[in-house]
Amino acid sequence: MSKQNPDKDLSARAGASGIQKVLRHRLFFPLLCLALVLLANVAKTPNFFAVSINNGVLYGYIVDVVNRASELVILAIGMTLATAASGGQDISVGAVMAVSAAVCCQILSGGEVSVTSFQNPLVLAVSASLAASALCGAFNGFLVARLRIQPMVATLILFTAGRGVAQLITAGQITYIRVSAYKTAGGYIPGVPIPVPIFFAIGTAVIVALLLRFTALRLFVEAAGVNSSAARLVGLGSARVVFVTYVICGFLAGLAGFVASSRIYSADANNIGLYLEMDAILAVALGGNILGGGRFSLAGSVIGAFTIQSLSTTLYAMNISADQLPVYKAAAVIAIITLQSDVFRGFIRNPRIKNITGSIVFSKKETQT
Amino acid sequence: MRFKKVLCVLLTAAVMTGLAACSGGRQPSPAPADNSAGASAAADNTDGLIVVGFSQVGAESDWRTANTKSMQETFTADNGYKLIFDDAQQKQDNQITAIRNFIQQEVDYIVLAPIGETGWDTVLKEAKDAGIPVIIVDRMIDVSDDSLFTCWVGSDFRKEGDIAVAWMETALAGKEKVNIVHLQGTIGSSAQIGRSEGLEAGVSANSGWELIAQQTGEFTQAKGQEVMESILKQNSQIDLVYCENDNMAFGAIDAIEAAGKTAGINGDIVIISFDATHAGLAMTLEGKINYNVECNPLHGPRVEKLIQQLQAGQTPEKLAYVEETAFDAATITQADIDARAY
Q: Do B222 and A61 touch (CB under 8 A)?
């Protein structure tokens, strides 16, 4: 049941008013949550939405949210595909980010700990780091698709080993690339007021969305996710589809790692992308996607990613002390997932349903006793 | 099929550049190099040398590498020592195994840089029963019985905080009001606790100082930058940023400059930092960090002094602190940076 689109069942009913149509849109609740988190700021920080040009670039909280969410958006897109096709999550993406950053910086530095000029061409370093992360994705994909290991267990290997590999590549050091050209991907292009990471996020979203729209990728992924045996029976290589989604997921993790590394012009193998895999999974879930695979909404995951970053920025803006930060974050996440739960959604869409489910539960209890 | 083609291309590209990555990435790592060789050579061929077994956490930072080097340079055959070095690669199990090996090899002293505080009781009891003195360096351990280790050598983080506050008191003297931003390390780490205590004591002692923002940057450059970005938007007047390590200071300076302000000696905002790593001192020389308090990783000489005391039959102090200095942007020279190995 959960793998079917609830919209269709409901829209079959006649007489749906405009408001109900909005309520029933699959992106309504993810957007509502994002709006709530953002609006909560206005009480404490009235100028939260104010955007000004400072020092030739856009400046404001809302710019921070969009800018800082970029890596998470990229990760969430890859995670959505892997989740939809395999019904499991790739928990190694944070570690793969570290591997990608380590490969990129180590090639650029030519083995030095800190350099002020590129030792090797940037193009070579970036393509090598993206290829290395795609290779990590292929490794995960092989385990999941060919050996049929549960995704979380299969990707646990790189989750554990990835940072070690990254440490090995950088010889346990933080490699610094103090070249202004390297800072561009995490900073600004001269004369353009929009932070560059936003372009990476938009670019990824657009390319993947176009792929989904103009190729059969979406159909394949959803078919593999809904019922892989059935998909195979109609002649679709489910294993291949799953494999490809993991390669894409790894590749995008590498891209996110490159952007994160460019922000701090270094490869900090211990900290780049730390715990980001959890945020990426949460983003997919907040976007209204089912973590068990099947139909998916890319836009939902992107909205989910922005929701998580707005939450972090909000907590900083509200000046909550560091030791209490995790508690507030957890409370907010609980509120958001409650808002998005099927029971709550059902209640909002049709309050009478609550009575029906209530009576069913009641009657069940009665029969048991 | 389209998928097959895509797959082939991706895989080929991945394998090719994976190879490139390997060849580019293989670096000689000085720390674990003499690990297995030293351990297997054991203690039988000592020629009257004092045998010291050193279990190191790993090689996770420049600081750690410098710490290892300091030990290796102090305990040389020329100085009358034989050092058996073990790199635990961030795993307590490996450290416990290493200590058991040291006991079996009947080393004269065990030096332990523990990865965490707890879980040392059993193995240290074995060392005590074998009559081998244990010297703890860097982090402190939490054991039921203090006699399980002979002494401890490390940094006095509270004192580091006090050194910074003392400098602030002179440098900011005459200013009526000072708005301070405090970027804390990972909450609960001993470096964070000591350095935060130092600043908080300073803020309550100086009536003009106000702590306008206090947030954790988790000792990383990325978080330091992100948090500072947010703090800059809330507060128009910031006079000083107290960063609990160099990496967060780098992030904070980037955020300040992105906001169109300047940091450092001729800038709008005074920057205080800790650790005084090579990169941190370079920033201090550049004038972007006003004052950088050292966190000294050179534990070797201090440990040697303790071993000499023990050899002479004396009882050393239970807790020994390494000497630490600080670097002022106004007086630092290139020679200070060149002298820094980490």
A: no
The answer to whether residues B267 and B261 touch, using CB atoms and an 8 Å cutoff, is: yes
Q: Which of A57, A129, A316 sits opposite B227 (nearest CB)?
A: A316
B25 within a domain of the structure (yes/no): no
- On whether both B168 and B285 belong to a single domain, the answer is yes
Tell me, rounded to whole angstroms, the distance of Cα A32 from its chain centroid. 18
Quote ipTM for the complex. 0.83
* B55 falls within a domain: yes
For residue B70, tell me if it sits in a domain. Answer: yes
Chain B residues inside the 8 Å CB shell of A272? 222
- CB–CB of A71/A256 below 8 Å? yes
Domain count, chain B: 2
Instruction: Note whether B62 contacts A: Cβ–Cβ < 8 A.
Output: yes
Helices and strands (H, E) in chain B, number of each type: 12, 12
d(CA A33, CA A198) in angstroms, rounded, equals 21
* DSSP state letters, A235-264: T--HHHHHHHHHHHHHHHHHHHHHHHHHHT
**Which residues in A lie closer than 8 A to residue B16 (C-beta atoms)?**
131
Q: Which two tokens stand for residue A163?
A: 């940072």
Nearest to B183 by CA among A313, A266, A322: A322
Higher pLDDT, B174 or B224: B224
Range of the domain at B163: 157-295+327-338
pLDDT digits (tens, 9 = 90+) for B217-250: 988 999 999 999 999 998 989 999 999 999 999 9
Is residue B232 assigned to a domain?
yes
Q: Fill in the amino acid letter for B128.
A: K
CATH label of the domain that carries residue B218: 3.40.50.2300
- Nearest Cα neighbor of A113 from B342, B22, B153 is B342
